[in-house]
């Protein structure tokens, strides 16, 4: 299929290369999970598109997972259903096959957002949930100072919230999801008060944006952040974040109405 990587990835990121140990750093966070569970209401059958290794899939509902990357499908735990090899813009299901559908941290990688959202709406009789980041809010993170190249990549990749709402038919609720200090889902903002974690290569690799920046950027980021942590520069400016229980960053849950 066009746009596929060697491992079957159909989006812009090659998870055959960057998906190693992904589940070590990207574990579903209970606080974020609560927002998803509430939005799913009483749906019994749920489609998870771009399901990856299964983060945020509800275990108490009948879930069908779709994931084009072989390396990500292989990392799904045994208690979750085997994922179907398919892509968002061409879902192999009949109209209104599911009570609800969801897509978490994936729409920014789709080659055709409009087609993917239309397909989710077509096969879903109830709410369509999209967990994503608002590109207009990414500058609020300290990473915008230390890794502006990575933030610029993220801002280009994440679609505007208005574009997602429009793709879902124009009727949607947009919920701001505050990020907890001990967030277990290691997207970049999850470490807003734990900067040392981003010195770990695996933590950066689990955020696909790093794979799009010039290779020279990452070692410079590590050198600067390490130095500023060692001499207290980071804490002098951002240390208050270490005790801040939540961060109102870019994380948004969009719930498209039937």
Automatic annotation (TrEMBL):
A Pfam cross-reference name? Methyltransf_11
Source organism, top-level taxon: Bacteria
Identify this protein by name.
Class I SAM-dependent methyltransferase
The answer to whether UniProt assigns keyword Transferase to this entry is yes
Q: Show where the Methyltransferase type domain sits.
A: 47-124
From the Swiss-Prot or TrEMBL record, what is one GO molecular function term? Answer: S-adenosylmethionine-dependent methyltransferase activity
Which processes are annotated in GO (biological process)? methylation
Mind giving the lineage of the organism this protein is from?
Bacteria, Pseudomonadati, Pseudomonadota, Betaproteobacteria, Burkholderiales
- Check the record and name the Gene3D superfamilies matching this protein: Vaccinia Virus protein VP39
Q: What organism is the protein native to?
A: Trinickia dinghuensis
